[in-house]
Design brief:
The protein has about 160 residues and is an all-alpha fold. The protein contains 5 helices and no strands. The model has no long low-confidence stretch (mean pLDDT about 95).
């Protein structure tokens, strides 16, 4: 079995790179959704949500960079065009959302979709002992599960 400089099997690492690029694409759409709801939110909860949405998009921006760097670490090239992001996107694109509950539902739905992608990556990276990817996916999953719980509490669901 041929291994890369990290000691990971090349073929399996290439499959993880593909999955990480899919995650990267979806995170880019999530980020843009967050920017849109941050800019467009209206109503009595504006001040609280405006700040929360900024916190979430700043966090997603950091995660985007971590994902891209992980792709590079494994020997791949991160996707970086809007064409690629749309091609691999699995999230609902939020457009002109100004209602607080619609915005929160978009976040919950997006995070749920991201969790599915991340769990699939975690399974594949675990199989080849790719601890770098495992650790990143585990951290993302833990944070996003907590965010979903908090958003559902806000929605009183």
């Amino acid at each position: 079995m041929k291994t890369n400089i990290l000691g990971l099997p090349v073929k399996e690492s290439e499959l993880i790179i593909v999955e990480l690029n899919i995650l990267l694409s979806n995170f880019q759409v999530y980020y843009q959704n967050l920017r849109g709801i941050h800019w467009n939110i209206r109503g009595k909860r504006f001040f609280d949500l405006h700040v929360k949405f900024e916190e979430l998009y700043n966090d997603s921006q950091l995660k985007i960079d971590l994902i891209a760097e992980s792709v590079l670490t494994l020997g791949g090239r991160p996707l970086h065009t809007f064409e690629d992001y749309i091609k691999f996107n699995q999230l609902t694109v939020g457009k002109n959302i100004s209602n607080d509950e619609k915005a929160i539902h978009l976040i919950v739905d997006s995070l749920s979709s991201l969790l599915k992608i991340e769990r699939a990556i975690l399974t594949k990276s675990s199989e080849i002992n790719d601890e770098g990817t495992n650790s990143m996916m585990s951290d993302f999953i833990s944070e996003q599960e907590k965010t979903i719980w908090m958003m559902q509490a806000w929605l009183e669901e």
